[in-house]
Amino acid sequence: MSTSATSNRRDFLKDSGKWILLTGAATLAWDFVAEGAPEQAPNYHAIDHWWGMIIDIEKCIGCGNCVRACKAENGVPMTDDAFRTWVERYVVMPDEPDKPIVDSPNGGYDGFVNLKQYGDGAKVFFVPKMCNHCAHSPCVQVCPVGATFESPDGVVLVDKTRCLGCRYCVQACPYGCRYIDPRTETVDKCTLCYHRIAKGLTTACCETCPTGARVLVDLKNPKDPIHEFMRTHKVNVLKPQMATGSKAYYNGLDGAVR
Amino acid sequence: MHGVQGFMYPNELELQWSILIVLYPYLTGLVAGAFILASLERVFNVAAVKPTYRLALLTALAFLIVAPLPLQMHLGHPERSWEMYVTPHTTSAMAMFGFVYLWYLMVVLVLEIWFDYRRELVVTWRASTGLKRQFYGVLTLWSDNISPEALAIDHKLGGILTVVGIPSAFLLHGYVGFIFGSIKANPWWSTPLMPVVFLFSAIVSGIAAVMLIYMVTSKLRKTEISMLCVDTIAKYLYYAFIVDFTLEMLDLIHRLYVADESLLALDFMVKTKLFYSQIVIQILIGTAVPLALLASVQFVHWSAAARKAIYSIAGVLIMIGIFAMRWNVVIGGQLFSKSFLGYTTYKLDFATKEGMLPALVFLIMPFLILWGLVKILPPWEPDATDAGALRHGTSTGA
Questions:
Q1: Which residues on adjacent β-strands are paired with residue A103?
Q2: Is B245 left (phi over 0), alpha (psi -120 to 50) or beta?
Q3: Which among B92, B175, B82, B71 has a CA at the least distance from the CA of A149?
Q4: In A, what residues contact B, Cβ < 8 A?
Q5: Which residues of B touch A134 (CB under 8 A)?
Q6: Confidence class for position A27, pLDDT limits 50, 70, 90
Q7: For residues B48-77, average pLDDT
Q8: CA-CA distance, A166 to A143, in Å (whole number)?
Q9: CA separation, residue B364 to residues B27, B32, B370, B371 (Å)
Q10: Which of A226, A253, A193 lies closest to A66 in space, CA to CA?
């Protein structure tokens, strides 16, 4: 038997395995995903999407699943000062609505304790935070070498092979979403799990949220529930006065949230 | 622990810009200020400051050479910084730094110094032998035409460069202010006044630095300090300082009166974490005292010895005060959370990459470079009162 016949059979088995193991769309993208460039997959057209996220504060229970999933999925340093996503707990006393007491121990990674310490009169809620993937990102504007950029599908990404580590973008982000990865000496932030969404999956934080408080949305998809949600809910973005074109849409956002 | 009071976003716990970034506006400010002082003589014909003209240019060059080094040291990937030249991101204020810096260094300062020194360089080249001859040959670019016509062209071109240099000096430092002033996320920085405040504080610090260097070098060379010169410099220093102080107070009063949501955080910070560096060092010791000292000279007839003492003390206090101002802008702007709900602490290490030791090295380095430049390009005039002597054949004395 010739070598090429063996090879062909092996290729056939590999390809069949892929088809059996994966669905059609993901299989088409497989080679590109394996190369670390899922956006180049033939069946993923970046221009057809405009990604964002709905964060429903009224559904968040502060379990920290999203923080843990994010750190695990994306290899975020396990320190208390590096987060792609984190959860804040707000305690607002009725007589001081503009002076909330806020904490986020270890970014909410371990969940929250002492829920009752402020008494029954306090309004307590959780606010998951992440990169807002702004359409007019201050971080993109200030990067001196264009290492931070907006992808055609509305995701703010960092090219770590070009980042100087000057930290200007960290200063420019109004939401505190960026940190320096000590292993690479470059900036790091939420990628909206780009390696997953380009394969048709949702983000790690949305995947693991037990209450559906976080939902990945595609604003260019007319069938996406986001459109109905925006019509029927009072939705806001963080710090709207910054006019950054934020695409993290919060439902039930209290005025005390900063 | 991170020394946090209240709430900071988790990614804010560590400060991003250290003392090295404090040095950057401080050093570039000295460059711009020294150049403005030099241009007083050249463009505005203030003959009294002639003894400091060349010294000011060399001072500006010495500080400009060092200015980007703390930035390089701070970068996570300094080996990639050249990418700012080859693939600059045009919407980034920081990307323009490389171009503004190169323009200022090569087109303005180096060319102006070269035209101004060309005659002496050629004379030294011709008079020397061996390695020294080759060295000065390189400095002249092997152009030995020092005919009166050629020198007249040098003089004219030098004048044009100074005229171009003034807006360039304004650009160099105003732009540094813009880097901070354009960050809308940070209310401590975000004000259109920032470039103007930076510019005038730069002029103040640069003039004070050259005045001090002139007085110290005169002392070391055992030559008489021209009182007409230092009196004139002190007068301009006083005027520039009044404008600088007015602008800073305008900024402060505006913040207090407008009292937007950031005021509580900023007000608390000034009263606690920045109390010593801002209220005591910057405003009282670094501004009020030297301003009063300089004002006293305008209204009281002090003796020459007393005036020298006053200028020395005022100069040193100004240098400290402007450093404190840079510190309060850069470090102060990172001590509070962008949530306005908490504060962190800056811990200055000593012998680390971004510690006090490299900062001290970068502060001393310009003086060593200046010493070298003065050896190569002696800025002293044979007779300070005879401004035309150099252009008529007498050789320079080191």
A1: A89
A2: alpha
A3: B92
A4: 80-83, 86, 88, 100-104, 106-107, 129, 138, 140-146, 162-168, 170-180, 184-186, 242, 258
A5: none
A6: low
A7: 95
A8: 9
A9: 11, 18, 10, 11
A10: A193
Q: Does B86 touch chain A (CB under 8 A)?
A: no
In DSSP terms, which residues pair with A181 in a beta bridge? A186
Query: Which residues 6+ apart lie within 8 Å of A32 measured at CB?
Result: A38, A39, A40, A41, A42
Instruction: Please write the tens of the pLDDT for every residue from B17-52.
Output: 999 999 999 999 999 999 999 988 888 889 999 999
> Which tokens sit at B16?
């991003």
pLDDT mean across residues, chain B: 91
Which of residues A214 and B103 earns the better pLDDT score? A214
pLDDT over 90, % of chain A: 77
Domains and CATH numbers, chain B: 5-380 (1.20.1630.10)
Determine the residue among B9, B21, B340 to mutate to test chain A binding: the one whose Cβ has the most chain A Cβ atoms within 10 Å. B9
Q: Is the dihedral of CA A39, A41, A44, A46 positive or negative?
A: positive
CB contact under 8 A, A171 and B7: no
Return the percentage of chain B with pLDDT > 70, whole number. Answer: 95
- Taking the CA of residue B202 and the nearest CA in chain A, the distance in Å comes to 22
CA dihedral B287, B293, B295, B299 (to 10 degrees): 170
Between B271 and B24, residue with greater pLDDT: B24
Unique residue bearing structure tokens 């990102």: A137
Kind and range of the H or E run holding A54: strand A51-56
Contact A165 B76 (CB under 8 A): yes
Name every chain A residue with its beta carbon within 8 A of the beta carbon of B84.
144-145, 164
Cβ(A143)–Cβ(A160) under 8 Å? no
What tokens appear for B166 in the block?
A: 């003034």
For residue A90, the chain B residue with the least C-alpha distance is: B7
Domains observed in chain A: 3-44 (no CATH), 49-258 (3.30.70.20)
Residues 6+ apart with CB under 8 A from B131: none
Q: Are B169 and B35 in contact (CB under 8 A)?
A: yes
A181, containing H or E segment: strand A179-181
Give the DSSP H or E segment for A103: strand A101-103
Phi, psi of B82 (to 5 degrees): -65, -20
pTM: 0.89
For residue A199, the one-letter residue type is K
How does DSSP classify residue B136? H
Q: Which of A111, A105, A102 is nearest to A66 (CA)?
A: A111
Q: What number is the ipTM of this complex?
A: 0.91
φ/ψ region of A212 (left if φ > 0, alpha if ψ in -120 to 50, else beta) reads: left
Mean pLDDT value of segment A174-183: 97
